Amino acid sequence: MLSLEKVREGLASAGQSHVLQFWPELSEEERDTFLKELSQLDLDGLKDHCEGPQRVAASWPDSPDENMEPVPPEFIGSVKKSDRSALEEWENEGLMKISENRVGVLLLAGGQGTRLGVPYPKGMYNVGLPSGKTLYQIQAERILKIQELSDRKHGSKCTVPWYIMTSEFTLAPTEKFFKENNYFGLESSNIVMFEQRMIPALDSDQKIIMQGKGKLAMAPDGNGGLYQALVDNKVLEDMKKRGVEYLHVYCVDNILVKMADPVFIGFCVSKGADCGAKVVAKAYPTEPVGVVCRVRGVAQVVEYNEIREITAERRGPGGELMFNAGNICNHFFTRAFLQDVAEKFKDQLRQHIALKKVPCVDMCGNHVTPTQPNGIKLEKFVFDVFPFSRNFVVFEVLREDEFSPLKNADGAATDSPTTARNALLAQHSRWATAAGAMLLDEHGNLIPPTASVSAVDSPAARCEISPLVSYFGEGLEKLLRGKTLPSPFILDEKMAKELQAQ
C-alpha cells in the first residue's frame, strides 16, 4: 500500500487533489480502506485518463459512413443462404474441434443489472420461464449438451471450459451463485472467473467523481477491457495449458445464445479466420444497432449514430439493404489472435465516451442521486479489435433463433424480460411443432400448426425445452411426434425419460 504522501502527490500532479478533501472527516478504518483503493490507481497514468474525454472528442474520426462498404460475399456464411451441405460440413468441423478440447467459451459479464432494476448480475436474472431458470443456468446446460453431442459423435470425453469476465461489482455474487447451484452440473475447475479493470468516472470538468467521502466512483472499462483482463489474469496461459485454440465470445444478456455453436466455429475454422462476427439482418434501415462492414477496406463495426440516414437506406441491385449486418456481440477469435491483440494492439483500441447517471457526493459531502447523466465513463468495446484481423469473416443467423437480449425492465417496448421469455418460448414451440407435436393453449384449445409464433406477442403455448434434452431442436421427434402437449409444458430430462418409455 502506498503512503498518504505518495498518493497526495500523484493526485496533485493529475489535477485531482479534491479526492482527499474529506480525508479529515474519515475514521481510521475508513482512511485505511480509502488509501488501499487509492493505492490501486495507476497514478502515473491518471492525468492521461482524466484528459481522455477531451482527447477522444478532439480525435474522433470523420463520419465513416462515406467510406463504408459491405463485407464481400466470399467472407460471409449464412444459415439462411448457405448450402445445406456446407452448413453440415461446418457443423461437423465444429463438433470435431469441440471433441478435441480445442474450443472454449468466454462470457462478458462485467455489467450490473441496473437498467433491469436489480442489484445483482444479469446472469442471475430469472425472466419468468415455467422452469424458473436463470440465464446462467440456461447457458451452463447448453455447454453440457454440446459436450455430450460432441462426445456422442466422436467417442470422446471432451470439455468446453467456460471463461467468465466479471468486474468488481459482479465477481463475488457470481462466484457465490455458481457455488450455491453446484456449478449447474459443470466441473468447477472448468469455470474460470476473472475481473476486468475498474476506472474512475469523471464529471464534465474532467474531475474524478466521489461516490462517498472516502470512495471513488468506479466503473468497468467496457467489454473491450477483455484484452487487458486476459493479460492481468493470465487467462491466455490457462487457455494454452488446456489446449484451447478457438474461443466463442458473447454477452451475458442474450437468452438465445448458442454456446460454442459448432456451425459458427466450423465456418470460421474452415475459412481460416482469426476473427469472426455473428450478425442478424437489421429489423429496419435505421435500427439502433452497430453495422459490421468495412471502412476503407478494413473490417469494423460502425455504430448506428455514426451512419447517416441516406447511407442506412442504401440498397443493392436486388433491393436488399446494403448495410444490413447488425452486430450482436457474438464473436469468434483464435487464441493466437487474442495473444497478438494482448501483445501488440490492446493499447491502440479506440476509447468511447458513455454518459451515465453516477450516484455521488457533492462538494459539501451530501449524497446526490442524479436524475440526469452527470458522469463520463471511458469504455472500450470488444469489437474494436476487428481492424487488426488478418482474415475476418461474418456469419449471418436468424434473429428469432439466436438473438433476444435482456437490457431493460418490464414495461419497455424491447429487450425486456417479457420479450426475452417470449422469444425462448416461441422458439421451443417451433421446435415442438417441427418435431410433430400438437400444442394446446392454457385453456386446452388446440393451436393450429401454422399459427405464427414470435417474441412480439405472448406465445399461445408455454412450451419450454431444457437444453439438457435438446441443444438446438435436435432429437425431439422420437419424443414428441404425435403427442399433444398441454400448456405450460416443460420437457426436462425426467419428462424425456417418461416420454421415451411410452
Description:
The protein is of the alpha/beta class and 502 residues long. It has helices at 4-13, 28-39, 43-50, 52-59, 84-99, 135-154, 171-180, 226-232, 235-242, 262-270, 309-312, 335-345, 399-402, 417-434, 477-480, 493-501; strands at residues 68-69, 76-78, 103-108, 162-166, 191-195, 198-200, 210-212, 215-216, 218-220, 246-251, 275-281, 291-295, 298-302, 325-334, 352-356, 360-361, 367-368, 375-379, 392-397, 438-440, 446-447, 463-465, 484-485, 489-491. The chain has an 8-stranded mixed β-sheet, with helices on both faces.
Q: For the CA atoms, what is the radius of gyration? A: 24 Å
Q: How many strands? A: 24
Helix content: 25-40%
Low-confidence stretches: none
Mean pLDDT: 94
**Class by helix and strand content?**
alpha/beta
Major beta sheet summary: 8 strands, mixed
- Strand-residue fraction? 15-25%
Q: Based on CA inertia axes, which overall geometry fits?
A: globular
State the end-to-end distance.
67 Å
What topology, given as strand order, has the largest sheet?
2-19-11-14-10-3-4-5
Number of discrete helical segments: 16
